[in-house]
Amino acid sequence: MLAEMGYAASGIDISPTAIAWAIERDAASEAKCAVDFRAGDASDLPFGDATFDAVLDGNCLHCIVGDDRARVFGEIRRVLRPKGFLFLSSMVGDPKDETDAARFDFQSRCQMSEGVAERYMPTEASLLEELSRHGYRVLSHQVHVNPRWDHLFANAVIDEG
Prior knowledge:
161 residues; alpha/beta; Rossmann fold; three-stranded antiparallel beta sheet; 4 helices; 9 strands
């Protein structure tokens, strides 16, 4: 959508299959947006310093657990220009579904699969604090209530002071 509006846009996913699908979809569209799609890791972004005015996290952050979260926040700061924006959508809160609750470790706030943490779902307050701790000032946020997991949507800017 942003590319269709004339903005330079890039897309990254850790899955080469997802990137191939995005490229095929773009090539098949009438808009032919020329998005720079790349396979890559959010904790080691394949972009130069201060490349972007804004970064949109479309439900990636809750898939990042442990120390990788700090690296991801640092990488986003690195690729953002001064006063750059982070638009974030991430799962938060407690599981509402029985199956999800059975796999959720309330102490670590992680959804587990065979003993391995695969998703981190903080509380709303702890995610907002995490953003602040990593140098972002939250301009606005809201939680969308969903049947299985709630999602926090936040607009944040690099905090320069």
